[in-house]
Amino acid sequence: MTGQRYDYHGIVEEEGKSLAVEHWQEHIRTLLVDTRLVSIGRALNLMIIAFSPGGDLGDESVRLHVQCPMRFRHRDSLLIGSGDLAFERPETGEKRYDTRAAEFNSVLKGEVVRVEDVRHGPAGSLSVECSGGLFIEVFPATLRHVEAWRVLRVGDEHFGYPPDLI
Prior knowledge:
Blueprint: E1 4-6, E2 11-14, E3 17-20, H1 21-32, E4 36-43, E5 46-52, E6 62-66, E7 70-74, E8 77-81, H2 96-110, E9 115-120, E10 126-130, E11 134-138, E12 149-153, E13 158-161
Antiparallel strand pairs: 1-2, 2-3, 4-5, 5-6, 6-12, 7-8, 7-11, 9-10, 10-11, 12-13
């Protein structure tokens, strides 16, 4: 977005007016809440979670891109996580993440999973609460000043962490 500046101290400026970080976080919440989770995948080490604002499986116009540790959790059970990118199946060479993502996507085709809430935590952590007890949890884990994650609407605005890199 042009004309914007994000500050680590919690101030956002947009064409001369200041907005609190809570306002910036509310944009992220507005983009995700009530969308349907439609698929998960990756491009190299970039994990891509796609959502549909209207609920159509063919519409993946809202996305969460993650380049830091993350996981999908169902209640107390881990389903898939960024650590699965490091493991290959010896017999096929396929990444465990890809196998689990394909299984998860098969479930998503038959089950409607909607985003119910989005919570921002310390140091850029993000928790996306979905129906049925599913959580997407993102937690930046480096002191390097690099992009950890971003939420976007394809062809429109992007929001992420750290905000001054988006």
